[in-house]
Amino acid sequence: MLEVTDLTRTYGHGPTAYTAVKDVSFTVAQGELVSIVGPSGCGKSTLLRCISGLTAPTSGRVTLRDVPVTGVPDGLAVVLQEYGRSLFPWLTVRDNVAMPLKRTTRGRAARRSAADAALASVGLPGSGDKYPWQLSGGMQQRTAIARALAADPALLLMDEPFGSVDAQTREDLEDLVLQVRRERDITILVVTHDIDESVYLADRVIVLTAGPGQVRADLNVTLPSPRDQIETKGHPDFVHLRTEVSRLVRSRDDLAAQSDAESGAAEPEEVAAQPDTTAPDDVTAQPDTESGAAEPEEVTAESGAAEPEEVTAQPDTTASDDDTAQPDTTAPDDDTAESDTTASDDVVVRSGAAASDS
User: Fold this and answer.
1) Average pLDDT value for residue range 91-108
2) Which of 273, 210, 213, 202 is CA-nearest to residue 241?
3) What are phi and psi of 7, to 5 degrees?
4) Which of 86, 236, 252, 287 is most exposed, with the fewest beta carbons within 10 Å of its own?
5) Which is more confidently placed, 259 or 72?
6) What span, in angstroms and rounded, lies between the C-alpha atoms of 188 and 191?
7) So what's the pLDDT on residue 167?
């Protein structure tokens, strides 16, 4: 029925490009209900949009009934999470459900009849003349499901369909999906964040890694049917499966770690190593210089240390012979020594400070 092969979707180009899903492959058989679960941001909704034809994959392919998906195919319907934004508030509930039938069904009476039948199948008989804003949240989502079923799709895609309703309504809608699946033998692919829901609804659970999403596990669900919110969720197999799915979702996946490494995760370590290596040398050199180690002598030599030595030798020889020479000789000694010492100190401190700042 549905085949996804090496599907990758990347947004943007160059160094700022972001890959949502990478090399995803799986199949869904006719009449099967498969749930997709994974950590937040793993690309579940992007994957569903690529399957529906709303978004073109960067690479890989999707085939529905052996036909490549290059746009929104016939025989496919999508139920979104935000039912309030998917229903037209100025249309009646009946007209909302009949909207997609305008492409396939001629005659207003035929469309109204099909819409009423779809509303009855989701537990909303007699609600066709109301408006969406007159319904509760759960009833609005039932209307969205009825609109999808009115087109009699071969494949039903559901993107977090019950994320905006309360817990009790969520359970009722889960049972509704299972009922529709039994009555219509429809193929369903459900994306969800809820681990219990992924196990309760599905024949198989596909677990994705952290983004970019890749298939980490494909688990078979062998719970007895029909399923019940109380008995099924207390079954030992259910407890075991939900625990396994939770472990897979919460743990760090090796494939995701490998993708991080390939995308340059090692670079920060190399950059961090540079200041770690350089800083200790500079810091060590600074106290040695300030404490009067060999560094000042080298700086003095570089700034003309040979001249003070010659001048110092002159007063030793001439001081006793000529008193007049003493001020001429002594002044340069003091000035030269002070300037040389100060200059060397400034050079050492500044270079040391610059090194430590760096």
Assistant:
1) 89
2) 202
3) -80, 130
4) 236
5) 72
6) 10
7) 87
Distance in angstroms (rounded) separating the CA atoms of residues 188 and 163: 17
Give the CATH fold of the 2-262 domain: Rossmann fold (3.40.50)
Query: What gap in Å lies between CA 269 and CA 287, rounded to an integer?
Result: 29
For residue 183, give the nearest of 118, 231, 132, 247 by alpha carbon: 118
Handedness of CA 308, 313, 319, 325 (dihedral sign): negative
Amino acid at 101: L
Give 67's strand partners.
Answer: 64
Tens digit of pLDDT for each residue in 309-334?
Answer: 444 444 444 444 444 444 444 444 44
Using pLDDT thresholds of 50, 70 and 90, give the confidence band for residue 265. Answer: very low
State the average pLDDT over residues 246-262.
66
3-state secondary structure 179-220: HHHHHHCCEEEEECCCHHHHHHHCCEEEEECCCCECEEEEEE
